[in-house]
Specification:
alpha/beta; 2 domains; 6 strands; globular; DNA-binding; phosphoprotein; WalR-like; DNA binding; CheY-like_superfamily
Length: 205
């Protein structure tokens, strides 16, 4: 079972998310939080596989909460079109994915599954804007990829195209665990925290 924590300050939104996720046989919602501080505290105690995190919440916003949970659990940011500046901050904080709140039920469930198995996800509706803007802000900061092997450069290209571990494995004719290992090495060598950051990095090369 994929254990999920839902964090949103609107009760109606939380109820809708719980209803959708509750219909998936492989997902269990283990808790819900109405503010960022509660989300962090609950995540540290319950150790969910995935946290669905709203950005604008009282006590602690979703960006700060995501930063505190970096390395603890994977976070999918729930966002809207008018919150780009917050999304960029969440990307830097290590968010594993970004999803629009108007996403349909199947997309939401699939996003949780993808992130739980180590893949990343950015809603197609904001991918181009997000990667373009983030890449521009990171150009002067990021290290050059000289330290990557030829295979790792291929993996970075796959990440830039938004491919999952399984898709990378098929494209490069390698085992999926091997693809996952290469992804981890690429992120470590480039000083990146998530697949979404790798996509932004590739876009700015």
């Amino acid at each position: 079972m994929i254990r999920v924590l839902v964090a949103d300050d609107h009760a109606a939104v939380r109820a809708g998310l719980l209803l959708i996720l509750g219909g998936a046989s492989d997902i269990e919602v283990i808790g819900e939080a109405a503010d960022g501080r509660s989300a962090v505290d609950m995540a540290l105690e319950m150790r969910p596989d995935v946290v669905l995190m709203d950005i604008r919440m009282p006590r602690l916003d979703g960006i700060a909460a995501t930063a505190e949970l970096n390395g603890v659990t994977d976070v999918i940011i729930l966002t809207t079109f008018d919150q780009d500046e917050y999304v960029f901050g969440a990307l830097r904080a290590g968010a594993a994915g970004f999803l629009l709140k108007n996403a349909d039920a199947d997309t939401l469930v699939q996003a949780v599954r993808l992130v739980a198995r180590g893949d990343g996800l950015i809603s197609p509706s904001i991918t181009r804007r997000l990667i373009s803007a983030f890449a521009q802000t990171r150009t002067a900061e990021r290290p050059e990829p000289e330290g990557l092997t030829a295979r790792e450069r291929e993996v970075l290209e796959c990440l830039g195209r938004g491919l999952s571990n399984a898709e990378i494995a098929r494209k490069l004719d390698i085992a999926e665990p091997t693809a996952k290992t290469h992804v981890s090495r690429v992120l470590t060598k480039l000083g990146l925290q998530s697949r979404a950051q790798a996509a932004a990095y590739y876009a700015g090369m």
